[in-house]
Structures are given as structure tokens and as C-alpha cells.
């Protein structure tokens, strides 16, 4: 039995509910491997879970993604070897730790050109962008897309990848200082969400053309106005709630706004089947190799400073992704 360091919560609440514990770690069970984690991804969903917006049974660990090295292998694991560099993004909560047992079927081996830090930063967010632009809507050359929070983690990846596929992306940001990051990710124009008339600013930027797809993970503050930015028969994708829970949508409103399609998808069912997960990851690694997806680490925090990582995300100042180093 070895020991490990992990961050846990015993109650929902502000960032200060996160605490570090030293605890025993049992050997990997059948079908599992034990990882020495080298890089841990931070995602906005971690805040929803810490604060209780998406409640979990308590006490609980947090965090969905990490990269690391295989240090022990349980019975019945055939396709993983000691020392393999691997990553995961859908193995249940508990990635905030320096060591962890993970079901082998939830792991993907890392290609040589994808570093541990890149994988821990890109896997969860990149797999989100992957289903949003391959499955929720198969992005085509010439599509006009509106991407909210285009300077954020998923936002930058989605923007850069969709642009590489030939779409034109108009982005939004919550403050003008993020404009340069959104432009660098490929946005043709960036709209400031602090402008209460931001949908009019969007239409001005496009000479009145509306979006084939609106990707909205801001939720409460933007969703109703997002409906005004979608073209007739267009698609509005509500995939997050950074500003608070999105309002309920009356189906008749979709009719009035142009026979719109509306969906609320999630990365987990898209990657629940292990073979599909590996195929989606291969698509993401290919996009990384082609330069269509780039790692952009805005801030690094040691696991001991996990509270500060959460505060930084909530203060909404960071551009790019936050990485946690065990
Ligand atoms: N459904 C899925 O499958 C799925 C998977 C992954 C992520 N997501 C969602 O995608 C979004 C982005 O995730 P991420 O991890 O990459 O985070 P992130 O974009 O790095 O951070 C969240 C962004 O939300 C924006 N925001 C708007 N209102 C906010 C508020 N009141 N407080 C804090 N931020 C606010 C901020 O951008 P501005 O300041 O520029 O507005 C901020 O950059 C999140 O909503 C997340 O839940 C969904």
C-alpha cells in the first residue's frame, strides 16, 4: 500500500472548501492501472462541482483529466505497459492527486509529439471541441459560427479548429483585454459581452448575416440573446453555464426566432464507449499534429495551491488554460 496527496471537499462552497490530504492508495484492482500523475487539467466544471451546482456525493475528490506514467498494472489489463505515458478525461472525478488508480479502458496512450502538459491541458477541452465541431454540427467551409468565451479554454480550441476547417468565427469575450487572445485563436471579429447591445454588434460585424451555429457555454447571461444571432433553421448549442444556469426555453420561442434547433450536449456520453473515446482522441491528436489545436497554458499552479487555481478561474482574468502540477 502506497500513499498519495489529493485535494478533496467535504462540503460544497467557495474555493476554500478544497483541502489537501495524505491518504493510503491501494494497489490497482483488476482492469485498473496506477498512475504517477505529472500534469492535471483544470476545467470550469470543477467549479460547478465544488460549489454544488452539479452536486456530487460527499466527501469527494475533484478533477476530470490528467496525464501521467503507468507505475503498476492490475489483473487483466492487456494493452498497457509499465512506463507508458497516458492521459484520461472521463474516468470519474478525482484527478486532483499525485497518484491515482484508473480503469485502463479510460486511458489513451500519448503520441511522442504530445507532452504530458499538453495532454492534461487539451484532452478534456479538446474532446469537447471535437464533438462540438464534428458531431453536434459537422463544421463546413463557409459556415459562420458565433463562439462565446472565445479566449477561454474550450473557446480558443474550438475557434482555432473550426477556422482550420474553413469556418468564419466571430467570438465574444467578457472583457476587452481578452480580445487579442480571441483574435490570435482565429476569430474574424471579437464582440465585447459587456456591451448590452452585443447581438447588434455581432450583426454589424457580419453585415447582418446570422450564424449557422451559436456555441454558448456562458448560459444565464447570454442564452436568450444568442437565439437572436442564429440564422433561420440554425443551431444553438448550450454546452455550459459559466455565468449561471441557462434559462428554460419555450419551444415556441425557437419557432419565433427562425425555426431554430437547440441542444444541450455533454462530452461524457460522446466518449462513454472506450473505442469511440480512442477514435475521438486520435482525431484530436491529429488536429494537434496539424497545428489546428494548440496548447495555450495561461497559468500554472502547484497542487498545493489548488485553491488559488479555482480563485483565478472565478475571477475571470485568465486567458487560455490553467494547469495544475502535482
Ligand atoms: N458540455 C460539455 O461537454 C462541456 C465540456 C467542457 C466544458 N464545458 C463548458 O465550457 C465552458 C468553458 O470551459 P473551460 O473549462 O474552457 O473554461 P474557460 O473558458 O477557461 O472559463 C470559463 C469562461 O466563461 C466566461 N464567463 C462568462 N461569464 C462568467 C462568469 N460569470 N464567471 C466566470 N466565467 C464566466 C469567461 O470568459 P469571458 O470572461 O471572456 O466571458 C471564462 O473564460 C464552461 O462553461 C464549461 O462548463 C462544457
Describe this protein's structure.
This protein has 326 residues and is α/β, with parallel strands linked by helices. The protein folds into two domains: 145 residues, Quinone Oxidoreductase, Chain A, domain 1 (Alpha-Beta Complex), CATH 3.90.180.10; 138 residues, Rossmann fold (3-Layer(aba) Sandwich). 29% of the residues lie in helices and 28% in strands. The chain is built from ten helices and 16 strands. The strands form three sheets. Strands 3, 5, 6, 7, 8, 15 and 16 form a seven-stranded mixed beta sheet that branches. Helix 7 links the parallel strand 13 and strand 14. Helix 2 crosses helix 9. The longest helix has 21 residues. The chain is globular. The chain starts with a strand and ends with a strand. 44% of the residues are buried. The mean pLDDT is 96. The protein binds NADP nicotinamide-adenine-dinucleotide phosphate (NAP).
Amino acid at each position: 500500500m502506497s500513499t498519495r496527496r489529493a485535494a478533496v471537499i467535504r462540503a460544497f462552497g467557495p474555493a476554500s472548501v478544497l483541502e489537501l490530504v495524505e491518504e493510503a492508495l491501494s494497489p490497482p484492482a483488476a482492469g485498473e492501472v496506477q498512475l504517477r500523475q505529472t500534469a492535471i487539467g483544470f476545467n470550469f466544471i470543477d467549479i460547478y462541482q465544488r460549489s454544488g451546482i452539479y452536486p456530487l456525493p460527499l466527501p469527494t475528490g475533484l478533477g476530470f483529466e490528467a496525464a501521467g506514467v503507468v507505475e503498476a498494472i492490475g489483473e487483466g489489463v492487456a494493452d498497457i505497459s509499465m512506463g507508458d505515458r497516458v492521459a484520461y478525461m472521463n474516468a470519474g472525478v478525482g484527478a486532483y492527486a499525485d497518484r491515482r488508480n484508473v480503469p485502463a479502458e479510460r486511458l489513451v496512450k500519448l503520441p511522442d509529439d504530445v507532452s504530458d502538459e499538453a495532454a492534461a491541458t487539451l484532452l478534456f477541452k479538446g474532446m469537447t471541441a471535437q464533438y462540438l465541431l464534428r458531431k453536434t454540427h459537422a463544421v463546413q467551409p463557409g459556415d459562420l459560427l458565433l463562439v462565446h468565451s472565445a479566449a477561454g479554454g474550450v473557446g480558443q480550441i474550438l475557434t482555432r479548429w473550426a477556422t482550420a476547417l474553413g469556418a468564419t468565427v466571430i467570438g465574444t469575450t467578457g472583457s476587452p483585454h481578452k480580445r487579442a487572445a480571441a483574435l490570435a485563436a482565429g476569430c474574424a471579429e471579437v464582440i465585447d459581452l459587456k456591451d448590452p447591445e452585443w447581438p447588434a454588434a455581432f450583426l454589424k460585424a457580419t453585415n447582418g448575416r446570422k450564424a449557422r451555429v451559436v456555441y454558448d457555454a456562458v448560459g444565464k447571461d447570454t442564452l436568450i440573446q444568442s437565439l437572436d444571432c442564429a440564422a433561420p433553421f440554425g443551431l444553438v448549442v448550450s454546452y455550459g453555464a459559466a455565468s449561471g444556469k441557462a434559462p428554460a426555453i419555450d419551444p415556441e420561442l425557437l419557432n419565433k426566432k427562425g425555426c431554430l434547433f437547440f441542444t444541450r450536449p455533454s462530452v461524457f456520453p460522446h466518449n462513454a464507449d472506450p473505442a469511440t473515446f480512442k477514435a475521438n482522441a486520435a482525431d484530436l491528436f491529429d488536429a494537434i499534429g496539424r497545428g489546428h489545436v494548440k496548447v495555450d497554458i495561461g497559468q500554472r499552479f502547484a497542487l498545493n495551491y489548488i485553491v488559488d487555481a479555482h480563485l483565478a478561474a472565478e475571477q475571470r482574468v485568465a486567458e487560455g488554460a490553467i494547469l495544475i502540477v502535482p
